[in-house]
Design a protein that fits this description.
heterodimer, A: ABC transporter involved in vitamin B12 uptake, BtuC, B: 265 residues, alpha/beta, six-stranded mixed beta sheet, four-stranded antiparallel beta sheet, 28% strand, globular
Chain lengths: 353, 265
């Protein structure tokens, strides 16, 4: 009996170790793939040499142009894409759990619409007279829009109370429409054709201009929302049967909702301010993760982060190699992949229920 | 165990409940009866700490409820809502494991003891063997049993149930009521079926937001009170198989013959 037990335990422990090795491999391999693959393919050995040079002063002889591309363009791009994918996916998990709505995603709360308006105000309408960076405007716009949406939800009697979480979704839709209209209005009024094209490109998600200072913004934001999500896995589970049931299980509902939704809003706002609005990641990745690891958040939160990271790095690679000589907006790629996947999930969900 | 004094709740200028005073002994099963909208659910929610009373206060196990945090309340009181459903593909075991939430946090992970509580709860509601079943494949009666198991996994001293037999067929209604009687916990249960209410230790009658009567079923379920509260005339019959009292109802409002059909059994 004891022998069987220890044997089973050993197998379980072995499985756990395999899982960790798998996760670590993915964490390293995905960004490396993001660096190697592109318009000009860079051999893995060169990439590793550059990384060794930069991180440990290894002193390999590498072409300085390659080194520049790898260190300042490809690596930053891969890191921001990974952080952004992980953060948006975790935000999606948080919002879907708290709002009890399978269609909730980070952009639902008017955040991306507000960010777009903020960015457009600065880039096109010339607010701040060139002194304020576009991403700061986007961050301010995102937070302002989220504030307005929350206020509207509160006024309409829903808010983050025990009942009526549906109100915040309706308020989010109203807010998104308003800010999207404002964005279009500003572009139509003030932008010339060239600017309009640039803005449209940014609005659809763009990793081209990403540099190291963006990395130092994106990584902490992603880490913040991931850690807060992991800290609250039991609370997120407790919302399975609704907010009232969560309260009866000892969850301080208002406080948990406030902390988690605010964390999700800030993380999303930061990401939108860096890369523009990338749709479908926050919506589709949590569903895919649920399909793979189930609905309990102890697995769902880390799995979503990992899948989100890989998905966005892969989408970035695709956006660079799909049309030779041209970079597609990454939001186009995620939507092109995400929409059919989402349709599949919907159909499968219906068939099994 | 629970002492509520002068409880009241108002929302948007409308009084839902007022002046409810009651005391429940340890191990007692108290039934709450009353027509739709009489304030049964509101009273239960206030006793569960889910709704802040706009008037009066509640004492739970010797402590002021308003001063306790949600987690402290959940370690003493478990609440089974009338309708709590999910579209998540959660398994029965996962759903029951949620009951351990008030005893766990980031620093106190899942342990053998928690697994034992879950296994015991599933055994008590006779749902062993269902552990890996998907929630969406369960019938209404099975779901209600899982909800009760989830509540039992909380290891509560007080169990609050809001119409646990609603929407169940007669077999499941009786088995849920037998289960509640067997648990030996301090229990408050809102009920619609007056014949089921007879199996409670005591009954409280709510009418238009007031607790108008409190006492043993024999004292409470009198023809006068049923007439006044439920607008039915009742005849008492004795079941010849075991000698228990049974109530038979006839509607008093001839113009609206359908109004009271739910209460006729």
């Amino acid at each position: 009996m004891t022998l069987v037990l220890t044997g089973a335990r050993r197998v379980e422990r072995g499985r756990q170790a395999m899982r960790w090795i798998g996760i670590a491999t993915i964490l390293v391999a995905a960004p490396l793939a993001g660096i190697c693959i592109g318009e000009t393919r860079i051999p893995l050995s060169t990439v590793l040499q550059v990384l060794a040079n930069r991180l440990w002063d290894a002193g390999y002889a590498v072409d300085p142009i390659d080194e520049g591309i790898i260190w300042s363009y490809r690596l930053t791009r891969a890191l921001v894409a990974g952080a952004c994918g992980a953060a948006l996916a975790v935000c999606g998990v948080i919002l879907q759990s708290l709002l009890r709505n399978a269609l909730a995603d980070p952009y639902l709360l008017g955040i991306s619409a507000g960010a777009s308006t903020g960015a457009v105000l600065i880039a096109v309408a010339g607010l701040g007279a060139g002194m304020v960076p576009m991403s700061a405007g986007a961050l301010l716009g995102a937070l302002l829009a989220f504030g307005l949406v929350t206020l509207l939800a509160q006024l309409s009697g829903g808010g983050t109370g025990l009942r009526g979480t549906g109100q915040i979704i309706l308020a989010g839709i109203a807010g998104s429409q308003l800010f999207n209209a404002l964005t279009s209005f500003i572009i139509a009024r003030s932008a010339n054709a060239e600017q309009a094209r640039g803005i449209m490109f940014w609005l659809l998600g763009n990793l081209s201009g990403v540099r190291w200072d963006d990395v130092w913004l994106a990584l902490p934001a992603a880490a913040m929302v991931l850690l807060i999500g992991l800290w609250h896995i039991r609370a997120l589970d407790a919302f399975t049967f609704g907010a009232e049931s969560a309260a009866s299980l000892g969850i301080p509902v208002r406080q948990v909702q406030a902390v988690l939704i605010l964390a999700a809003a800030i993380a999303t706002a930061v990401m939108v301010s860096i890369v523009g609005s990338i749709g479908f990641v926050g919506l589709v990745v949590p569903h895919a993760a649920r399909f793979l690891v189930g609905v309990r958040h102890a697995r769902l939160v880390p799995a979503s982060a990992l899948i989100g990271m890989v998905f966005l790095i892969a989408a970035d690679i695709l956006s660079r190699v799909m049309i030779p000589g041209q970079v597609l907006p990454i939001g186009v790629v995620t939507a092109l992949v995400g929409a059919p996947v989402f349709a599949l999930i919907l159909i499968r969900g219906r068939a099994s229920s | 165990m629970i002492r509520a004094s002068d409880l009241g709740w108002r929302t948007r200028g409308k009084t839902i409940l007022q002046g409810a005073t009651l005391e429940i002994e340890k191990g007692e099963v108290l039934g709450l009866i009353g027509p739709n909208g009489s304030g049964k659910s509101t009273l239960l929610r206030m006793l569960a700490g889910l709704l802040k009373p706009s008037q009066g206060h509640v004492e739970l196990a010797g402590q002021e409820l308003a001063r306790m945090n949600q987690r402290e309340i959940a370690r003493i009181t478990a609440f089974v809502a009338q309708q709590a459903d999910t579209s998540d593909r959660i398994s029965v075991r996962d759903a029951v494991e949620l009951g351990r939430t008030p005893w766990l946090d980031a620093l106190r992970p899942w342990s053998e003891e928690d697994s034992r509580h879950v296994a015991n709860a599933l055994a008590t509601v006779e749902m062993q063997g269902f552990e890996t079943r998907d929630w969406i494949t369960l019938s209404g009666g099975e779901r209600q049993r899982v909800h009760i198991a989830r509540a039992l996994a909380q290891a509560p001293q007080v169990l609050l149930l809001d119409e646990p037999t609603n929407h169940l067929d007669i077999h499941h209604q009786l088995s849920i009521m037998r289960l509640i009687g067997r648990l030996g916990l301090t229990t408050i249960v809102a009920l619609h079926d007056l014949n089921q209410a007879m199996s409670c230790d005591r009954l409280g009658v709510l009418h238009q937001g007031r607790l108008i009567a409190l006492g043993s079923p024999a004292e409470i379920l009198t023809p006068e009170l049923l007439h006044c509260v439920f607008a039915v005339s009742a005849t008492e019959l004795i079941d010849p198989t075991d000698g228990t009292r049974v109530l038979r109802f006839r509607s008093m409002t001839q113009a609206l013959p359908d109004m009271n059909r739910h209460d006729v059994s």
